[in-house]
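Annotated sample (chain length 463).
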Amino acid sequence: MTPTPRDLVGIGIGPFNLSLAALAHPLTHLDTAFYDQRPRFSWHPGLLLDDATVQVPFLADLVTLADPTSPWTFLNHLRDRERLYPFYFAEHFHIRRTEYDAYCRWVAGHLPALHFGHRADTVRWNPEREHFEVDITPLGADGAPGTPGRAHARNIVLGIGSEPHVPEPLRPLADDPGAPVVHATDYLTHRDTLLAADHITVVGIGQSGAEIFLDLLRHRPTGRANLHWLGRTGAFAPMEYSKLGLEHFTPDHTRYFQALPEPVRDRLLPTQWQLHKGIDAATIAAVHDELYRRTLDGGWPDAVLTPGVRVRTAGRLADATIELHLEHTRQGTRSRLTTDAVVLATGHRQRPLDRLLGALDPYLRRDRAGRPRVDEHHRLVLDPRVTGAVYVQNAEAHTHGVGAPDLGLAAWRSAVILNHLTGRRTYALPARTAFTTFGLPPDTPQVPPARRAVRLTPLADGT
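Output written by the structure step:
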């Protein structure tokens, strides 16, 4: 006998699906389950540096911007841990990553719909029963697979996150188990080994590259830092963090971007890199302060910072050192850099949905570039014969813009999905969220407001 399908099955339990699970928790009429192959919740453990902060305010937690009365707010987490007053006096608008991770683990520990240690293998549509089937393999504490099972769902939500990106010229090194080459995602796991190397190179000059370079610099002795920091971007550029600039991470901008023609979206998105791929000003200042401190006794710190450089090829020399072949993208000059260890702060890329959705491929509707189309409800556009929905979280930057991976839109997107899923206004969402008007209404004349007539009353002296 086939079990009654759940209303929603979630695949992946990162912050975005955790947000959805938290907002779905009080909706007792919804039957939900979320699966993740990891044994427990964990958020970028290799980058939980002591002083690193989340780049959105604490109000951008899992639920507050959709439901500030939820029991799963960050402030309620502090109250539960008896930390409200210390937080109040600390005056931290941006909390540490370690604190955000602890908050998420607190929420995850209270939601019975979450199932860790379960790997989702395949999603298929059963046209006879009109629901989705998800093949799921339980994993033991050692990662060994158990007896496969199957979940049945009317709707699916994918929150499988991103994966570390290694540029093609560096893949041979990254794939060599004997090479001291570490992706930033695993930095803390290998920090002691890296610090033991005589010379270290950090590739990538975004936020994670800056944080890792700063951490290495602080742990290296003055006069013997032996660090090189390089990347393709033409400058150690600050992230756009002005108040109106931040309005690109509002539902207003998301709706505007999603309504643009596909070719316009594809041209616009790369130009907005500094909204989310630059370095925050505080980290830039901290790097400069640490470098400046090392000049107090005279001389310059033995750290080299070179923007505008790409790695053409890379390999290991006979003595196990690493040789990077570099090219300056503007000068056109080339050189070689010999180093003992490399940290790849080269970012993340969206995990391909095809690994899970191969069986759904005949039903998927794609754009001209072969990417899945995503509608305004964050739902994959499927063949009308599929009556269920497949929602996506952080897999729609090509259709919804720079806000797709931003934590500040997590609660809003979760609420949009739940409102669509339930068919009613389960969560009240604001009609307007930005002072900026990102587009013009079609065929509507833009007339400034009429000036109010002013009557001048003569003063007593007749003026």
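Annotation: The chain is about 25% helix and 20% strand.
Annotation: Residues 42 and 101 are 7 Å apart (CA to CA).
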